[in-house]
Amino acid sequence: MKKLMLSLFLVSMVTAIGYGQTISRDQMIALTAKWEGERFEDGRPKVPDAILERMKSVTIEEAWGVIRGEGYHNQFEGNWKMIHDDVPVVGRALTAQYMPERPDVDEMVRQKGEKDGRIGNPNSWPIDMLTPGDVYVADGFGKIKDGTLIGDNLGNSIFAKSGNGVVFDGSSRDLAGLSEIEGFNAFVRDFHPSFIKDMMLGGLNVPIRIGSATVLPGDVVLAKKEGVLFVPAHLAEQVVTTSEVIRLRDMFGIARLKEGKYTPGQIDAKWSDEIERDFSQWLEDHIDELPVPKEEVQKLLEKRHW
What pLDDT is recorded for position 16? Predict the structure, then answer.
């Protein structure tokens, strides 16, 4: 029975993707079953804004280590071009899948979109769905010439709706205009002056492939100059908390080394009980000035028994 249900689920999902549709709420929940928090109306995981804000300070390496430790080995993709190498993009993935155009399927997609009340060309439909904190993530099958999913007009619309940037396995145009949108960034395969052509929308808010990574709607996008990591929604808080502990321990270690209280060998090795007690006291003494929310430091202290 379970195999039959899974087969029916996959058939219905593939059918939805093939006709440029979103999957149902039930399908979305099934795909992201490990997420136990709030969801959008369509079922997409809604990782809290506070976690997204804290995620901005997480390094790619820290997040990578956590999710690999949980068995997620295919969530990173590198080799991007970007507008700015110092403007991270962090937010909830809203996904779109594009395919090489096939006229009969494209016609069906557009007709269905019109019945559903969608406006304009299909490459604008994902933008209409964006909410604050979203990151538009698109599988453009690596197309560069005639694969420009946005220019500066759509870029302005994206930023107005989401306050965020984009990640495209494809290209973009109007680099000069996009670079003038303060706070906006685009991770793309390349920039090209052509217009989008011979492409069609295959699916909205569906599982997609970005290079060697699998992306689900609601994944937390962590895009920095090293590359893009797609953090499963249910691991986002764990990634943030682990990163903050590492950051605090590094700050403590550096401070004590500068004071000459401990040797490099003591700090670089497994800490003794004495150092662990000293670390707890240091956290209490500096709780109001640490780069981690005070309430999170207090939670950490409550878990420690030194």
Answer: 47
Q: Is the pLDDT of residue 193 over 70?
A: yes
Shared domain for 149 and 182, answered yes or no, is: yes
Rounded Cα gap, residues 257 and 146, in angstroms: 56
What are the start-end ranges of the E strands in the chain? Answer: 76-77, 81-82, 89-100, 134-139, 166-169, 171-172, 186-188, 190-191, 199-204, 208-210, 213-215, 220-224, 227-231
Identify residue 283 by its one-letter amino acid code.
L
Convert the pLDDT of each residue in 80-101 to its tens digit: 999 999 999 999 999 999 999 9
Cβ atoms of 178 and 184 within 8 Å: the answer is yes
**Number of domains comprising the chain:** 2
Q: Which residues in 199-231 are b (16+ Cβ under 10 Å) and which e? A: bbbbbbbbbbebbebebbbbbbbbbbeebbbbb
How many angstroms separate the most distant Cα atoms in the chain? 73
Q: Are 246 and 279 in contact (CB under 8 A)?
A: no
136 contacts 127 by C-beta, under 8 angstroms: yes
| Residues forming a β-bridge with 97 | 139, 203
- Which residues constitute the domain of residue 110? 2-230
To which H or E segment does residue 245 belong? helix 236-259
Task: List Cα–Cα distances, 275 to 4, 247, 256, 259, in angstroms.
Answer: 56, 16, 10, 14
Cα 127 to Cα 21: distance, rounded to the nearest angstrom: 15
Q: Are residues 241 and 262 in the same domain?
A: yes
* DSSP label at residue 84: -
